[in-house]
């Protein structure tokens, strides 16, 4: 194992001799375990980068241990050891897509101070995420939620939690903008969040189904108009497009 870490066994022995001590069995065992864990983590990342792309186009049901092993030239037993079942592969794929989504859309937008501009940033980054095809099938969650929406089970529950989290974030940020006086005091935060998300998802579905890039411009125009209607100072809302 030492050679796989870029250090030869002889070099390791010499290092021990130079200090007057030999490498302990425990230390060697730890190095072996750490090396296996790191290789396993690398393989897991490789697999999940492929599965999120497949699922965004073909759905989560298109995933299988055998298919992934063949495509990535890995052993089927090795992939199975990492995930254990098709359902766990699907769940891990949902979690990996969620991490990409947070990195691409949510966390960058939340660098903007709370208020109306943060809401605008969330919408703008979401449209860009879909248009730039971070996932080749458009929004990962839009597609797989349609696939599993009426199917009970662990995958359905994971997708429902992800959807509630996203909707809840948007509602929270709209409410913060209202409480800061940037939106009219009677603004219904859940209603406005629902409308903004609906416009974004419509742009995604039209673009994917019809290969229609102009759908994003239309959504950006509609979102800007809706935010200006709700804003106490409409001129403060910069166009998304």
Descriptive key words:
single chain, 241 residues, mainly alpha, 10 helices, 0% strand, elongated, disordered N terminus
Care to describe what's here?
The protein has 241 residues and is an all-alpha fold. The protein is 72% helix and 0% strand. It has helices at residues 9-18, 25-58, 65-72, 76-83, 86-109, 116-131, 140-148, 154-179, 189-210, 214-230. The radius of gyration is 24 Å and the shape is elongated. The protein starts with 8 loop residues before the first helix and ends in an 11-residue tail after the last helix.
Which helices and strands, and how do they pair?
Elements (H helix, E strand, L loop, with lengths): L8 H10 L6 H34 L6 H8 L3 H8 L2 H24 L6 H16 L8 H9 L5 H26 L9 H22 L3 H17 L11
Molecular shape: elongated
Which percent range describes the beta-strand content?
A: under 5%
- Helix content, binned percent: over 70%
Cα-based radius of gyration, to the nearest Å: 24 Å
Total helices: the number is: 10
Q: What's the count of strands? A: 0
